[in-house]
Structure to design on (292 residues):
């Protein structure tokens, strides 16, 4: 594999994927809305992708998404970007000669996650998988989607989508007591560097189809908070408030064989990740500090 397009190259996952590809000596073609992208494309528009110059690629790694909720505006954003943008994605693959699309899917698309309840985000991501698979297969290529669990990073970009992760780091790193709901189920987090490596291995390998990718170890949020206070060692404590609505039960799907197929096991545990945040001095980027 000599050249890879990263769609959504400035997203949290896209940035890490670009970084790792460059470390491995693979040419990166950045695609996104930024004017200085190698391929300028806005998945939420009807505009065709603009190639700054002719580009050939072995694979396309798709890291771009809308993360809207289930309000009318959020639904429109999810459908327009995640589903409608598939047309532009397939056009990029066609023009670049990429015969493989690797999609950063979401565990939210799995109906088993919350007893058959799928929000507009998960629905739109699942529909995108169908369209991209159909389109690239029709053109003689291959498709693979890795449906990732909850992703987080060391820089705090994850707080926009993982607010409780951000809150726990913020309160623990500042030595302030956090009042949390009880938990009816455990959570599952994967560091973005592990997710990026799995995408790259999928791009360079033969794995096809849709695969669930959860971290091997689940963790209770209160347990995670206790670990955070221990790692930062700045005082404060965790209080479980019975007046707060408990965290809902979530069933993270397991597909252990995907790690063997890709020849890679996630390396960063939640505790190790907290140490990375502490040692990098980026804890001040985490939040919000809004727990009463």
């Amino acid at each position: 594999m000599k050249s890879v397009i990263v769609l959504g190259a400035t997203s949290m996952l896209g940035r890490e994927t670009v970084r790792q590809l460059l470390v491995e000596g693979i040419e990166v073609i950045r695609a996104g809305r930024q004017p200085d992208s190698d391929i300028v494309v806005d998945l939420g528009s009807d505009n065709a992708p603009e190639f700054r110059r002719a580009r050939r690629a072995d694979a396309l790694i798709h890291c771009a998404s809308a993360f809207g909720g289930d309000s009318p505006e959020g639904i429109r954003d999810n459908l327009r970007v995640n589903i409608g943008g598939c047309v532009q994605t397939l056009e990029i693959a066609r023009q670049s000669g990429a015969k493989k699309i690797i999609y950063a899917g979401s565990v939210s698309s799995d109906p088993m996650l919350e007893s058959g309840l799928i929000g507009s985000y998960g629905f739109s991501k699942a529909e995108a998988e169908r369209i991209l698979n159909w389109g690239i297969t029709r053109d003689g290529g291959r498709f693979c989607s890795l449906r990732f669990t909850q992703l987080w990073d060391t820089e705090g970009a994850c707080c926009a989508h993982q607010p409780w992760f951000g809150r726990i780091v913020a309160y623990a790193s500042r030595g302030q007591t956090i009042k949390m709901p009880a938990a009816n189920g455990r959570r599952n987090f994967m560091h973005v560097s592990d997710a990026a490596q799995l995408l790259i291995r999928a791009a360079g390998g033969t794995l096809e189809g849709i695969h669930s990718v959860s971290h091997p170890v689940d963790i209770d949020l209160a347990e995670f908070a206790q670990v955070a206070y221990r790692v930062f060692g700045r005082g404060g404590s965790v209080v479980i408030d019975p007046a707060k609505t408990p965290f809902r039960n979530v069933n993270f799907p397991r597909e252990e064989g995907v790690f063997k197929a890709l020849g890679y096991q996630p390396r960063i545990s939640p505790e190790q990740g907290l140490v990375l945040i502490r040692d990098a001095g980026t804890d001040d980027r985490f939040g919000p500090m809004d727990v009463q």
